[in-house]
Amino acid sequence: MEAISFLLDFILHVDKHIQAFVLAYGAWVYALLFIIVFVETGVVVMPFLPGDSLLFIVGALCGVGMMEFVPACTVLLLAAILGDQCNYMIGRYFGPKVFQWENSRWFNRRAFDQAHAFYERYGGITIVLARFMPFIRTFAPFVAGVAAMDRRKFSAFNVFGALVWVLGICSAGYFFGNLPWVQANLEKIIWGLILVPGLIAIFGAWRGSRNAAVPGNAL
After folding, report:
1. In a domain, 102, yes or no
2. Do 173 and 58 meet the contact criterion of CB atoms below 8 Å apart?
3. Domain coverage including residue 166
4. Into how many domains does the chain fold?
5. What are the DSSP calls for 12-33, one per residue?
6. In terms of C-beta density within 10 A (0-12 exposed, 13-18 middle, 19 or more buried), how is residue 151 classed?
7. Does the predicted model carry a pTM greater than 0.90?
8. How far is Cα 48 from Cα 14, in angstroms, rounded to an integer?
9. Which of 122, 119, 128, 110 is nearest to 146 (CA)?
10. Residue 131: inside a domain
11. Helix (H, G, I), strand (E, B) or coil at 153
């Protein structure tokens, strides 16, 4: 319970925790940032670590000189790219072994073919948009690997998505994160960065399941 309580407090007050880490350990904060983002995007069982809010706070701290913007963004970019690539490789390697293909009662050839066709057709935009959606951000590259999305196509959109995500949100934090109104409502903004994309993802999944249930709408 203590670990869960600390994790929840870290997510909701990531600004205070990162500031305290910088004051205590200085440049080691870049290693911490790499670990958090890599684990959140690269380990399929860790989707609850802070992502969007962390990038925003990092940008804001760079804006007041507590961190350097270019090194911070470089570290976060590397973590985001390598994390998604790792998650994709995990899905690509373990997917067939878990399902054991046609010999397993858990394997559904039609479902696999649909997933593969979806990722071949929409996988690029899915990987990019998933960057901005908590939980979906962690599972999308794994599913892309399981669905055997083309490796080069995945890698290209992985890099592009990471650039848009990291530079976009860090820049927003850098330019707007230290405004008085933002500072006064920072906890609400963090909640918004967590809940709003999540609700959009849930609504999209619900719409998708309804459309799939209608004859003629399946892939």
Report:
1. yes
2. yes
3. 2-203
4. 1
5. HTHHHHHHHHHHHHGGGHHHHH
6. middle
7. no
8. 13
9. 119
10. yes
11. helix
What distances in angstroms separate CA 77 from CA 1, 7, 98, 162, 203, one per listed residue? 32, 23, 31, 6, 29
| 216 located within any domain | no
Geometric angle at alpha carbon 67, from 173 and 51, rounded to 5°: 45
Q: What is the pLDDT of residues 163-195, one digit of tens each?
A: 999 999 999 999 998 888 888 887 777 777 766
Question: Is the residue at 177 inside a domain?
Answer: yes
On whether the CB atoms of residues 47 and 198 are closer than 8 A, the answer is: no
DSSP 75: H
CB 127 within 8 A of CB 77: no
Q: Please classify residue 54 by burial: count the beta carbons closer than 10 Å to its beta carbon, then call 0-12 exposed, 13-18 middle and 19+ buried.
A: buried
**Type of residue at 32:** L
Q: Which amino acid makes up residue 14?
A: V
